[in-house]
Amino acid sequence: MSIATSTTTITASTASITRTTVELDAEAQARINRFVEVRDLINTLDKEKKALDALIKEALGDAEAGTVNGKVRVTKSDRQREGVDTKALREAFPEAFDATRTVTPYTVLMTK
Fold first, then answer.
1. Torsional sign, CA 41, 21, 107, 89
2. What digits encode the pLDDT tens for the residues 7-55?
3. 42/49 Cα distance (integer angstroms)
4. pLDDT of residue 112
5. Closest Cα partner for 34 from 105, 95, 94, 111?
6. Is 8 within 8 Å of 19 (Cβ atoms)?
7. Are the C-beta atoms of residues 46 and 33 closer than 8 Å to each other?
8. Where are the domains of the chain?
9. What's the rounded Cα separation, in Å, for the pair 37 and 43?
10. Euclidean distance between the first and final Cα of the chain, in Å?
11. How far apart are CA 101 and CA 85, in angstroms?
12. Tens-place pLDDT, residues 63-111
């Protein structure tokens, strides 16, 4: 898959970033192309899903369920998500914020 590797250092006025690179073969390039296609399809489908969700909720109005030929085809359920205002917590209780803060590292693919 790889042909050659190299390391590049990018220096700005306040930070220096070192990036290791690898030359990818045609198979890897095809996977990247497919990755971009799938990502774009998912984004398109997500927009369509949100639009359909809104239209179905509009059709249901105040009803909790919708029927087709007398059989329940869709129901809606009100839910609530609870969160914490981290900015307010950090400002009001910095020690509690620091004591309970968690950091989870993760990697993201950025395609060009």
1. negative
2. 666 666 677 788 899 999 999 999 999 999 999 999 999 999 999 999 9
3. 10
4. 87
5. 111
6. yes
7. no
8. 19-78
9. 10
10. 19
11. 13
12. 999 999 999 999 999 999 999 999 999 999 999 999 999 999 999 999 9
Q: How far is CA 63 from the centre of its chain?
A: 32
- E strand or H helix that includes residue 91: helix 86-92
SS3 110: coil
Structure tokens at 73: 């085809």
Residue 27 identity (one-letter amino acid): E
Tokens of 92: 């009001």
* Contact yes or no for 44/59 (Cβ under 8 A): no
Residue found under tokens 């309970």: 100
